[in-house]
Amino acid sequence: MTEVVASAAAAEVYKDGRSLLTSAGSRIAYVKDLKKNYKKLMQEARKLWELRDGIETEISRHKISQVTREWIVKVEMITREVGELETKYNDEKKNPWRLLRVWPHSNLSKDMANKHGQVQILLEEGKLKRGVLVAELPEPVRKIHAPKIEDNSSLHKVVEDVVSFLDDKQIRIIGIWGRVGTGKTTIMQNLNNHKDIAKMFDIVIWAPVSKEWSLKKLQGAIMQRLKLNVESIASIEENAWRISEELKGKKCLILVDEIFDLIDLHEVMGIQDNLESKVVLASRLRDICKDMEADELINVKPLSDHEAFNMFKEKVGRSIHFPGIKPVAELVVRECGGLPLLIDRVARTFRKKERNVSLWRDALNNLRRWANTQGMDEVLEFMRFCYDNLDSDAKKVCFLYGALYPEEYDIYIDYLLECWRAEGFIPNEDESIHDKNAFRDARDKGHAILDDLINVSLLESSEKRKCVKMNKVLRDMALRISSQIGDSKFLAKPCEGLEEPPNHEEWKKASRISLMDNELCSLPETVDCCDLLTLLLQRNKNLCVIPKFFFKSMSSLRVLDLHGTSIESLPSSLSGLISLKGLYLNSCSNLVELPTQIEELVQLEVLDIRGTKISLVQVRCLIWLKCLRISLSNFGTGSHTQNKLGNVSRFVSLEEFSVVIDSSKQSWDKIVEAIATEVASLEKLTSLQFCFPKVDCLEIFVTKSLAWKKGSCLTFQFAVGDHDSSCFQILKSFDYPSYNHLTLVNNEGVNPVISKVLMETHAFALINHKGASRLSDFGTKNMENMLVCFIERCDEIETIINGDVITKGVLECLEELRINNVLKLESIWEGHVHPGSLTQLTTLMLTKCPELKKIFSKGMIQQLPELQHLRIEECHQIEEIIMQSENIELESSSLPRLKTLVLLDLPKLRSIWVNDSLKWPSLQSIKISMCDRLKRLPFNIVNATKLRFIEGQQTWWEELVWEDDAVKQRLKPVFHPQLAHASV
Hints:
The chain is an alpha/beta fold and 984 residues long.
């Protein structure tokens, strides 16, 4: 028994000893793994902290779920515990003698191993949560369906322009505007999906606005896109704060489509607090974009005929190639007026007609009647809405009046406003005030009405700066509306090739008739037109005779336009037009006389007899005229002056007077001083176009004219010197309504009266002038209002400005500088360039300056932040566009807005810029021809990001030297070989 007990006791001792040895061994192992466990723990802990920070950074606090919050709390707790273990470990390392203490050391190592396991568990939980959370994050770009835009189309250009503006740090808000159906939404959709925009911004938000929009609805759409909680009810201010907080630190683009009313984006989303955010707006109303403080405006206009047909062809499909279909298709497209929305809808309808020509023709007739055509209602609904929402009947009838002219026809603005006034559309409440310039004031009011019509896209600006035009669809709508108005029936058949006039019934029903640009040879002997207000017969070149009693029943007529016809005289019945206010006879080159009873036209305000053989004596009785336009020849020919003088001064009510040069220039020189004196006596004059053969004649006018002494009241176009009719055409491209023009031709020196006129001048042309070696000789102070300057054939000019003789900035308002055929010009600027000089210059054109070597002198480029267009042609001494010696340490951001560069026939040119250090951030187009020594372009892989077009000779392109073949490959797609004899 004792042995059994002893044996059992021995076994227990053995077990305890073995357990003790195992425990000791384990602790020793922990001691050995201490350093390894520490490293593993810290590595996993850092991953955990990085994961936590990522979740907290990427996802707003108010979006994190309760489960995730609990996980973050656990991470924070274990972070503190890991920190405590790290502190203990560092203490151990600082005291080596402690390494002999196995027990505490092993406990620390074991705790680290255990904590490592806990960290791994949290890390795996976090990865799962992050996967869920990241899936809930708003994606950077949410792709939407976007109709394909054809490369190089007008819509494609708008998209590229917007992308270019978005890359400009100075531009935050871009406004896209245009009438319904022009493709604004298509543009916005393509912007949303644009690959370059995805690289520019952290997030792109598509936020279309419905007609029933509200601030909360718009906020809700943005919050949904950002995946913010929209279920909880919050105030507008709270929502704006949440959106702003979510976007803080992010580069965000907001695309707001179809804006009908002013939206305060700061109230919506705190946009002013997010300086990295940008906005693109799309509206049918230009003023909405302006009111929302758009930095840049882009007007989306209808497609060209070619673009419109290509779009229609693509959507209709192969049936368009079937015999007989294409001619009908072209007529269908024409009815769509270049509106992509309408083209799309109409194409869907015609696609169903397949190859049945009869069905196509029937559908075309329905389209012309606006009957049962899908898409037409949608377009017309808003167009009619814009018309109905015009805030005055005057604006409505002004719009309808545009339908008298052909579709897409350039309507001269001044002429249109005169017609509006003659018809009584423009209020004239101030006319009773004796000293008021009623005609000018009415013109100003007319411009305001016109601006409103352009704003709502009922009329559109033309490429010709002083013209507007009306789209076909809008014109059709206007004609339809006018047909529904009892007192506004239109008979509008311009440009229809008519050889015979309309029938008597059509004349009788109409209140306004337009038969312009036809082939009429005759008119009815008599017509019953007692309600006729406007009659437009201009440019019927075969019309030679007006019947004797033709005007007899037109006592209500207010506008009569016969210009460009072949009539030789006007019948006596003209005197019966007692309500006539506008009579246009210009370019009737055969017209010799007016009826003697012309003085009975007591309401006549506007008379244009330019280019006729009518003598001014015949109209001298019309002393109530407000606007008179004549040619030199209208003063009469021959040596006798008694019938030429004393006529102008009779027009005491005249506000606008224009005298244009023609073949009678020699006789004009003999009487001009007396005429200038007469013109100076016209007290109410507000606009004057006049040619002074000598500076002395100009001085007579300036000294004696009461209108001139009123200062800014007079708008003028003066040509001074021995000149011909082309002088008035030189500045035509700058012909804004309010510009004052001065053309100085074949003169010498600097006369004080020229300096005086120059102070009021906006556009200045200096041609074949002697006695001045610099433009600044005319006095830099006199050029403070100058916006445009044109210099030609001035052989003594060596530089434009000498900065060493001035003390402050000059030409601070100048926008365009064009220099042509100046043989001794060596530079644009000499000496110091003072701050402010040339800072508004957008266009610089230099042509045929054989001695010009230096374009940008030292310090000049820094003053050209707005330069957009640079053209150098036939300047044979130019070796460098930007001279390295004059531009040491040139900033890479120089010429930030340069868009187009044209270099032609520069045989010595070897460099645009010495290297590729410039960013060229806005450069879009380059044209180079006959610059054979230019072997390198200043581009690399990353600069000139907006360059879309390089044109040059194929041989020149092939001989270019590239630092990196990757640059050549990058630019190769945008190179276009110059066609033989191509105009650049």
